[in-house]
Design a protein that fits this description.
Chitinase A, domain 3; 3 domains; mainly beta; 8-stranded antiparallel beta sheet; 7-stranded antiparallel beta sheet; 392 residues; single chain
Amino acid sequence: MRKAGVLKLMGLAWLAVFLGCSVQQRTVQPDVYQTHESGIHYRILEQGRGSKPQLNDVVYVHYTLMLEDSTLIDNSYDRGEPVSFKLGASQVIAGWEKGIALLREGDKAVLKIPPHLGYGDASAGNIPPRSTLLFEVDIVKVNKAPRPFEVPADKEFTQTTSGLRWAVVKPGTGKMLVPGMKVKIHYTGFFEDMSIFDSSWQRDEPIEFTLGKGMVIRGWEEGISKLRVGDKARLHVPYQLAYGEQGRGPIPPASNLIFDVEVIAAEEVKRAVPFNVAGRDTLETETGLRYIVVDAGNGEPAEPGQIVNVHYTGFLLNGNIFDSSVERSQPFRFLLGRGQVIQGWDEGIVLMNPGARYRFIIPPHLAYGERATGPIPANATLIFDVELLSVE
C-alpha cells in the first residue's frame, strides 16, 4: 500500500501518516477466525460477489489498522480514497499479499497478521516491534491484469537490423505514424516469461509522447513508427533497445522485453520555430548564463517564490529540439527559485517580465553537468527559447 500503514518500504511519508494520527481505541468484536497455512487468521464480515484478485491484478482497498489491544493506528477512510497495489509486486507487506488474495471484490473482512508477515522485529511509526496487526479491510475494486494478445504460433515477425522484432496482430485503418506526430498508446509490458511489469490498460491511462523525440526507449521509437492508428501489435525489444545493462525500477539489468501495444490516436503537432535573434545583443551574467532579449514584455519581473507559467523549446547546439512545451500545447508551470528546474532557468527567468521572450544559452554547470539526461548528452550546453506567459 503506497499511501499508508502497510507499506513494505517505510519512508518519511509513512512516518508522517502515523505522527498525524491520534491514538484511539476501537473494539473488534471477538468471533471465529479461519486460519490460512501462512499463519494469517481472517474472518469475513460481509461477502462480496466479485472475483478474487490474481497475480498482477491491481486491488483497491479501504482499511483500518489496529494493534491487538485495539489501539487505532491508521485508516484510509480519513483520507477519502482507498489505497491500491499490484498483487505479487512486493509493494505491500507479506500479510497483505497473502491475506488480500483470500478475499474477493466486495468482501469486508478482518485480517489478523502475525509479526513475521508484518514488520517483524522492526518498529514502524506507532507500531512496536513484533506486533500482530489487525486490519479491517473493504475490497473496493479489483482491476484485472490485461491478458496478452492472442498471437498465432505461426505468426511471422519482422526483424530489423537493430534486433527489434515486431508484428501487427490486428491491423488498424488509420493514418501511418511518422516522426513528429503526437501519439497516444495503450500498452502492457511483459518479461520473457510473460509476467507483467507495467500496463497502461490497467491504470486506464494511455501514454502520450511525440514520436522521434527520444521520449521513450529506442525499441519503442523504432517499433511504433512502423504502425498506423488502430494497429494492435507485439514488439520484442532486446535489452540494448530498452533499459540496457543497468535496468530500471522493476526491470532487471539486461532484460529483453515484450510489449503489446495499441495505437489509440495520432495527430500532427505544432512545430516549434526558433526565435529570430539576428542582430540582437548577447548578454552574460556572472555565473556564465548568456541570454538574448527578443521581446521585453511588461509589468514587474518574476521573483523567487512566485509560480510562473512558461512556454519553451529546448535545443542542442546542433539545432535539434529535445523538448518543447509549444509542440505539446502544454505550458509549463513551476515555483521559481526553489530548485524545481535547472539552475540556469531559476537564474534566467527572474530577469523576465510577463510577456517577455528570451533565448537562454545555458552552460553545462547550470544545466545537467556531466550527467546525460534522456536525449541530452553529458556536458551539453543547452539553448532555450522561453516565453513568460504569466506570474502568480
